[in-house]
Amino acid sequence: MKDDSSENEKGLWKLSVDGSSCISESGAGLALISPDGWTLEYVLRFGFKATNNEAEWEALITGLTITKHLEVKKIEVSSDSQLVVSLVSEKYEAREESMAKYLAHVQNLKSAFQEFGVLKVLRAENV
């Protein structure tokens, strides 16, 4: 038996989130990958008008809510949103009230996990 710290042995789940908005509709895509390599994919269509930043937040919140209900304890989130990643990792400070509310919601969800990480990825590498 190998004594390394592979993703599987650590129990680390990976969540990729991406929100999108245009004039007529908005939505999100999520991909959740277990330590064993099985993948759950979700496509969301929002029933409300959202900005691109709001769609990114909604994608993250939905993904974290799903992983929380699956009782995931270790999660690494990837997103192509510089704003969301920087706010969640506390590199930026929320200036708009709406962004502060989204951030507070995510901070509350983060408390459900023993380990939580967030990474900024290139748009081409995301969901």
Write up what this structure looks like.
The protein has 4 helices and 5 strands. Strands 3-2-1-4-5 form a 5-stranded mixed beta sheet. The protein has 127 residues and is α/β, with parallel strands linked by helices. It has helices at 7-10, 52-69, 82-88, 97-110, and strands at 13-21, 26-33, 39-45, 74-79, 115-120. The N and C termini lie far apart (33 Å). Mean pLDDT is 90; it is low at 1-5. The relative contact order is 0.20. The chain is globular, with a radius of gyration of 15 Å. A hairpin with a 5-residue loop joins strand 2 and strand 3. Helix 2 (52-69) packs parallel to helix 4. The protein has a single domain (7-120), classed as 2-Layer Sandwich (Nucleotidyltransferase, domain 5), CATH 3.30.420.10. The longest helix has 18 residues, at 52-69. InterPro entries: RNaseH-like_sf, RNaseH_domain, RNaseH_sf. Pfam families: RVT_3. GO terms for molecular function: nucleic acid binding; RNA-DNA hybrid ribonuclease activity.
